[in-house]
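Bench notes, afternoon.
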Amino acid sequence: MWQRFFLFLALLCSGLPGYADEACRGWLEALDVALAEARIHDIGSQRIDGYPHLRATRWLASLQREVRSDDQQALWLSLAEDEARLGWRAELQRLAPHPLLDESWPTQLDTCLAALTALTGFPGIA
């Protein structure tokens, strides 16, 4: 368990482009599988395909169509990241204990969501 955590931490801290992104995406994808197997799903927000670090409510989805400026896009991404954080936390608290989760998972989640959002362009919602 600790080896996986330290590997993940090393990848996040490495300055090599793409490794933190891949580690975070891999972790979130593995968690998605575990949540699906456990039939745990937060109904408060909608997942956005291809963006495991973002989620949207109906309000955010409607607001997305009104966004015009770069500042508005950054604000929308921040709100979508916050929605994802709330959804992931609600789901993972129900999943724990699980081999993919140790006591540092809330920090790992925050780090991954922030890292992936920083790399994200403004998405559309289908």
